Amino acid sequence: MIFNKKTIEDINIKGKKILVRCDFNVPLSEGKITDENRLLGALPTINYLIEKGGKVILCSHLGKPKGEAKPELSLKPVADRLSELLNKDVKFLKDDNVISESVKKEIEQLKDSEIALLENTRFRKEETKNDEIFSKELASVCDIFVNDAFGTAHRAHCSTVGVTNFVKDSVCGYLIQKELKFLGDAVEQPVRPFTAILGGAKVSDKINVINNLLEKVDNLIIGGGMAYTFLKANGYEVGNSLVEEDKLDYAKDMMKKAEEKNVKFLIPVDHVIANEFSKDAKAIITEEKNIEKGYMGLDIGPKTVELYKKAILESKTIVWNGPMGVFEFKNFENGTKTIAKALAENKEATTIIGGGDSAAAVNMFQLGEKMTHISTGGGASLEFLEGIALPGIVALNDK
Ligand code: AMP
């Protein structure tokens, strides 16, 4: 993939105030961070900037405070944990307005290689509107802007896009480079066979991904709730399974396109069904593709698992986005778990997990270490797979 954006290695860092947009949108439970992958992902860039003598000002959003200062969504726990991870004090610039005169004063007092963290950028209602005033305020505290928030690169907000209009040098960090390298190489120059596995609840979320990937892959594997729309479009009974009636024609079109492009389009041939959507529901395995009235498909069946496993083990590049079933319920986790294991088993393939629920599933089954790359951005990686240029990256300076 041709990557022509300036990076942190292309600029002079020493003594400069550097605003770094990170993705610190981490899950919190009672003030404790329950998954710190995104913090770990940000460390290489931060360490590089400290080493080179920059004055590092970090910023991020956390959750959806909708323009209000919500104490439970403060970034204070992130500052505390980052201080431990970096073994260096991360000064938390607590201010409900994010930027203020006193915050600016504290930034002016930063010495080379010191680090500060601004409060949650979404405490400001302007943030998600990509408004000019807040963008200028952010730009006013720095000489250089670094975007390293891959997870938010698909959003045009003040702290990802607006700010770049008012800073001379806007460049990308190591995490964005790494994400684009893995996702970009997989999609643009895959070692074949190239297989994409798509699952999750809805077809409508993945319409453009399916359409775009059909131009590139050798196999397209469909699982999860979205599979039943394809089965119904093929004339099978799906009982009470999730179906998007208004996407039946689209499903037919995609299967036709796959045939024209010589792409193997795999949909389930059997299922694990239940009579209710519940963690305690009794799991029943069907013999075939049809699902009888009163039942719903909650996971792919054992024959399907074998079929999908075979395609996975024969592949050299695999991109996975979306679980194969309701993996959160023990009785319906098998499809997702076995597919994750098959990816882990295929040592010759480049395996890329597209963030979100599939990343959660792979980590839940403790197979994260076995994958080539787990993306830190579910939405951003999906938009990348759709072939959309990510605004947070487009906005950065070209080399
Ligand atoms: P998504 O956010 O679209 O990736 O969807 C992920 C969600 O889809 C997970 O919470 C799964 O439990 C759910 N899911 C997967 N398979 C099914 C299914 N057969 N029926 C209903 N929900 C499903």
Automatic annotation (TrEMBL):
HAMAP family given in the database record: Phosphoglyc_kinase (MF_00145)
Q: Does the UniProt entry include the keyword S-adenosyl-L-methionine?
A: no
On whether Protein biosynthesis is a keyword of this UniProt record, the answer is: no
Q: What is the name listed in the Swiss-Prot or TrEMBL entry for this protein?
A: Phosphoglycerate kinase
Q: Which GO terms describe its cellular component?
A: cytosol
Q: Which residues form a coiled coil?
A: none
> What Gene Ontology terms for biological process does this UniProt record contain?
gluconeogenesis; glycolytic process
Name the residues that bind substrate.
D23, F24, N25, R38, H61, L62, G63, K64, R122, R155
Primary location recorded for the protein, binned into one broad class: cytoplasm
User: What gene is behind this protein?
Assistant: pgk
Stated family: Belongs to the phosphoglycerate kinase family.
